Amino acid sequence: MDWSWIALSLIALAYVVRALLNISKNKHKRLPPGPRGIPILGNLHMLGELPHQDLLRLAKKYGPIMYMRFALVPTIVVSSPQAAEQFLKTNDLVFAGRPPHEGSRIVSYDRKGISFTDYGPYWRNMRKLCTLGLLSNLRISSFQPLRREELDLLIKSLKEAALARTAVDLSAKISSLSADMSCRMIFGKKYMDKDIDERGFKAVIQEGMQLAGAPNIGDYIPFVAPLDLQGLARRMKAISKVFDAFFEKIIDDHIHEPKEEGQPKDLIDVMLGYMGSKENEFQIERSNIKALVLDMLAGSMDTSATAIEWALAELLKNPRIMKKVQEELEKVVGMERKVEESDLESLEYLDMVVKETLRLHPVAPLLIPHESLEDCTVNGFHIPQKSRVMVNTYAIGRDPNVWTDAEKFLPERFIGSSIDLRGRDFQLIPFGSGRRGCPGMQLGLTVVRLVLAQLVHCFDWELPNGMMPSELDMTEEFGLTVPRAKHILAVPTYRLPN
């Protein structure tokens, strides 16, 4: 007799009974409106290749607070600024939880980072250490010289392409730049593609992000998780081994190779300083360091590159706006030098371009899901405990009640507007808001604005082979982040004196 199948069947029966009891318990309470589901799967079959777009279409019919059932998991989809404020500000503490997530359990050392871990003392402690090690204003400022060095290397390579009048793969160039900047801030030095895996550094990170964002049936029907019906767990375990071997090597290097005098501490140095220390409420071990490093690497590398790509794509598609950005740079910076970080605060139109990019193309359109820690009432609707909450920033950025001509790229809409993107104004929350908002927002904005300004100031860009701006493919590719499906190819012409 196969006892494993009997055990699995009993677990399945227990989950189904519990789900039915929960449905029965909430039956007479006023749940938000939503589409009717089908047995077992609920509404899972309604999600296609681009779930954020599918959820926007459904929200237009059922409203900004929508109830769905993804298999056994009650799910609330939030699609307007007013609704987002209720979940992320008014009831922030209630919705500060994170739902179970198979990908983070496998890849992120049983959820020991800060992105997917449960809300509580451990999360607060790790977030504090992360801020001290990488994300404080002082730390961000200390890394300014290395950002300049890496950007200068990119400009030099693009100047060579400009002399040869050859098209460059801007997407690949930006990804490499972002990876190099992130590695130097987190690890203290750059690593070659072959140092992590034969597929290359960026490819491994991207695969990890795609796997983390892929809808996993095991997250919604836990008793089938051991069967790995989609093969996601197998792939995640393979990626996890690659990451783990790489991080072990880096930690060993830091332990055995002391820092040169005057060299700034990186995140690994800071975290190693806490290992074995009794200053912290929790014991810091290698697994904690590796989980936090993975969070920071994915958060700083993939998100910044994705935002810069989308911004450049919109500028290439809208030559009038590109010209206006360049005119501002000529006025503020002049044509005799490159952009410095100190110039960024004076570049108001560039800031509008970044805001408009993140409105139309939020890097993580569904953020990281929240979970309700207890029963709650929002706008008169009952939100059951353990509900998964998905905030659709893609839908919020296209809300016709907030944005005129919402599908158009119009940075000028922010002229005279006080709308900010740091989480205070819920019309624009690409970094989330509240307790679980993105801790790396300031670093991310600095990198995006600096790289975008430098590329547009130093070069004129044209699409290759006579392609018209209107022909540029703007298709998305879904994952934990949503990058462009196709790389940007463009021909640079250098604008500054040599």
UniProtKB/TrEMBL annotation:
<keyword id="KW-0349">Heme</keyword>
<feature type="binding site" description="axial binding residue">
    <location>
        <position position="438"/>
    </location>
    <ligand>
        <name>heme</name>
    </ligand>
</feature>
<comment type="similarity">
    <text>Belongs to the cytochrome P450 family.</text>
</comment>
<keyword id="KW-0732">Signal</keyword>
<dbReference type="GO" id="GO:0004497">
    <property type="term" value="F:monooxygenase activity"/>
</dbReference>
<dbReference type="InterPro" id="IPR002401">
    <property type="entry name" value="Cyt_P450_E_grp-I"/>
</dbReference>
<dbReference type="InterPro" id="IPR036396">
    <property type="entry name" value="Cyt_P450_sf"/>
</dbReference>
<dbReference type="GO" id="GO:0016705">
    <property type="term" value="F:oxidoreductase activity, acting on paired donors, with incorporation or reduction of molecular oxygen"/>
</dbReference>
<dbReference type="GO" id="GO:0016020">
    <property type="term" value="C:membrane"/>
</dbReference>
<keyword id="KW-0503">Monooxygenase</keyword>
<keyword id="KW-0408">Iron</keyword>
<feature type="signal peptide">
    <location>
        <begin position="1"/>
        <end position="19"/>
    </location>
</feature>
<protein>
    <recommendedName>
        <fullName>Cytochrome P450 CYP736A12</fullName>
    </recommendedName>
</protein>
<dbReference type="GO" id="GO:0020037">
    <property type="term" value="F:heme binding"/>
</dbReference>
<keyword id="KW-0479">Metal-binding</keyword>
<keyword id="KW-0560">Oxidoreductase</keyword>
<dbReference type="GO" id="GO:0005506">
    <property type="term" value="F:iron ion binding"/>
</dbReference>
<dbReference type="Pfam" id="PF00067">
    <property type="entry name" value="p450"/>
</dbReference>
<dbReference type="InterPro" id="IPR001128">
    <property type="entry name" value="Cyt_P450"/>
</dbReference>
<dbReference type="InterPro" id="IPR017972">
    <property type="entry name" value="Cyt_P450_CS"/>
</dbReference>
<keyword id="KW-0472">Membrane</keyword>
